[in-house]
Every structure is written in C-alpha cells, then in structure tokens.
Amino acid sequence: MSADLAAFPDRQTVADKLAALGEADQAYLRLLMENAKQDENLLEGLALHLDRAADARFLNALKLEKLGEWLGTVAPARLQVRLTETARSSQHAAYAAFRAGLTRCGGLERAYPKA
Predict the structure, then answer these.
(1) With left for phi above 0 and alpha for psi between -120 and 50, is residue 60 left, alpha or beta?
(2) Which of 28, 37, 46, 111 could form a disulfide with 80 if both were Cys (CB 3.0 to 4.6 A apart)?
(3) H helices of 57-106, where?
(4) Rounded distance between C-alpha atoms, residue 83 and residue 53, angstroms
(5) Can you say how many angstroms the Cα of residue 99 is from the centroid of all Cα atoms in its chain?
C-alpha cells in the first residue's frame, strides 16, 4: 500500500508543475519536497522536464535558470546533491541553464558548508 502512495504523483504531473511554476505549482512542489518518500518522483519529474526542454524547438534558458534558482533555494539539504547530479547529467544547453541557476543560488553550499 505504501508503494502505491509513493507512486503519486507521477513524473508527468511533476514535470508539468515544474514547467508552469506558478504560485500554486510552487506550493504543490514544496509540499512534495517535505516528504522524503517523494524524492524519486520529484527527481524523475525534473529529468522529464529537462528532457522535454532539451527536445523543444525553442529553449527558454531564462525560465530554466529561474527553476534552478528556485529549486536550489527551497529544496531541503537531502536533495541538493541529487539536484546537482541531475543538472550535470547532460551537456545540453537546457541542463546547462538549469545548472547555472542552481549554482547561482548556492543551495549546495548552504546544505554542505565547507569546513
């Protein structure tokens, strides 16, 4: 039964929320990040969103940078390394734009400060 609960939301729903990123979508994603069991769904949705952006005819780099900044700012420390891994998983410009926003916000450095 708990496996069924962790399967919701699916990655398409998360990708759609990340693409829109309105106030309601941000609240939904914040709620999703509060539960560690939902981490895989969030990351799979992020990967799908970045893949869709990479396949799109028009690359909205500013929107992807904003997404990277927002996720890097609001995501809990447990997700920061995995977000960075996702951002570095491809050399495509969509991933590079997301990575630039993620790096700019400094979420990884806040989560794991240098000694």
Answers:
(1) beta
(2) 111
(3) 61-74, 77-87, 93-105
(4) 16
(5) 10
Task: Tell me the C-alpha to C-alpha distance, in Å, between residue 19 and each of 35, 38, 45, 47, 76.
Answer: 21, 18, 10, 12, 20
Encoded tokens for 63: 């929107």
What are the pLDDT digits (tens) for 55-96? 999 999 999 999 999 999 999 999 999 999 999 999 999 999
> Contact at 8 Å (CB) between 104 and 65?
yes
What single letter denotes the amino acid at residue 17? K
Amino acid at 20: A
C-alpha 87/C-alpha 47 separation (Å) is 9
- The Cα–Cα gap between 72 and 67 comes to 8
Q: Identify whether 9 is preceded by a cis peptide bond (ω within 30 of 0).
A: yes
Prediction pTM value: 0.91
Q: Distance between CA atoms of 114 and 92, rounded to whole angstroms?
A: 29
Tens of pLDDT, residues 11-40: 999 999 999 999 999 999 999 999 999 999
